[in-house]
Amino acid sequence: MIRNHMTLGISRLEFACLVTTGIASGLFVATVVTGTTIPVEETARAITLPQHAVFAALATLGYAFLFNVPARVAWACVLCGVASHSIGLSASIWGSTSSAAR
Predict the structure, then answer these.
(1) Residue environment code for 33-63, b if the CB has 16+ CB neighbours within 10 A, otherwise e
(2) Euclidean distance between CA atoms 35 and 29, whole angstroms
(3) Stretch 52-59: mean pLDDT, rounded?
(4) How far apart (Å, rounded) are the C-alpha atoms in residues 62 and 5?
(5) pTM more than 0.85
(6) Longest alpha-carbon distance in the chain
(7) Mean pLDDT of 6-35
(8) Residue 99: predicted pLDDT
(9) Are residues 46 and 38 in contact, defined by beta-carbon separation less than 8 angstroms?
C-alpha cells in the first residue's frame, strides 16, 4: 500500500509547511499594515453538534483535496474526520479532563 514513496511524502509535508508559513506570514503582514489585532480570547458563538459535523466534513474534505486523496477513499477521510471531531467535542462538552478530548 505504501510502496516506499518516501520522497512524495516528504514533498507533501514540505508543501504543507510552506502553506502554513504563508498563511501565518499573510496574517502577520495584514495585522502590521492595517494596525488591527486578531482576537485570541473572544466569546465563541454556540453552534450545534450537527453544524460542527458539517464544518468538520468540509475541513476534512479540504485536506483530502490538498493531499490528493483518491476520490474513491475521500469519503472514508470525511467519515473519520467527522467522527473524531464529534467524539472529541462530545467528550469536552460532557466534562472529560483528558487532554486528547480538547
Answers:
(1) eeeeeeeeeeeeeeeeeeebbeebbeebbee
(2) 10
(3) 93
(4) 22
(5) no
(6) 50
(7) 93
(8) 54
(9) no
How far apart, in whole angstroms, are the C-alpha atoms of residue 88 and residue 100?
Answer: 8
Which residue shows C-alpha cell 467527522? 82
CB 84 within 8 A of CB 78: no
Residue 100 and residue 88 in contact, taking contact as beta carbons nearer than 8 Å? yes
Q: Cβ distance 102 to 92 under 8 Å?
A: yes
What are the cell numbers at 45?
A: 458563538
Task: Please give the grid coordinates belonging to residue 14.
Answer: 514540505
CA distance 96 to 89: 10
C-alpha cell at 48: 450545534
Residue found by looking up cell 469536552 in the block = 92
Residue type, 28: F
